[in-house]
Design goal:
This protein is of the alpha/beta class. It has 4 helices and 7 strands. The chain has a domain of 82 residues: Nucleotidyltransferase, domain 5 (2-Layer Sandwich), CATH 3.30.420.270.
Length: 148
């Protein structure tokens, strides 16, 4: 029974290479594991990054018109007003919209379903007085077919 080491080169090849040859391969398994874990984390947190505020908008029938790229004014349950994720007052609404969006002609207002109507009416009036067309944001209702 014969055994060949270093492809049968024997001692002659060891002297030329300076000793035993080492097999150097990159192990990509830990890298793939880390990438998959990061992918799962991003998939789980992607829906949280949509909006910084949790607003439960009222549900209505679906509308064919799609949403344009306009400033979004949000009103939470307590009546606080936000432009994007920054708190604004009613008096500072127009300067804040102009600072972020330039000469926007219209704004979207999205209010929590449990917001007192007075707060919503005040924001609509302030936006209208500032010269903006007011559009309301709602969520589509679930299908009523299976519930009847």
């Amino acid at each position: 029974m014969a055994l060949s080491v270093n492809n049968g080169a024997g001692n002659a090849s060891r002297r030329r290479r300076g000793g035993t040859s080492m097999l150097a391969e990159i192990n990509v398994t830990p890298f793939v594991d880390v990438v998959l874990v990061l992918l799962i984390i991003f998939m789980l947190t992607a829906h949280v990054m949509d909006y910084g505020l949790q607003i439960d908008v009222p549900k209505v029938r679906a509308v064919d018109k799609s949403m344009e790229d306009l400033p979004i004014i949000s009103i939470n349950k307590t009546g606080d007003v936000y432009l994007g994720d920054k708190f604004v007052t009613l008096d500072g609404l127009r300067p804040a919209v102009e600072a972020q969006f330039g000469n926007a002609k219209a704004v979207y207002i999205r209010a929590d379903a449990k917001t007192v109507w007075d707060a919503v009416a005040q924001v609509i009036a302030a936006a209208g007085t500032a010269g903006y067309q007011v559009n309301m944001v709602t969520a589509p209702e679930e299908s009523q077919k299976g519930k009847r």
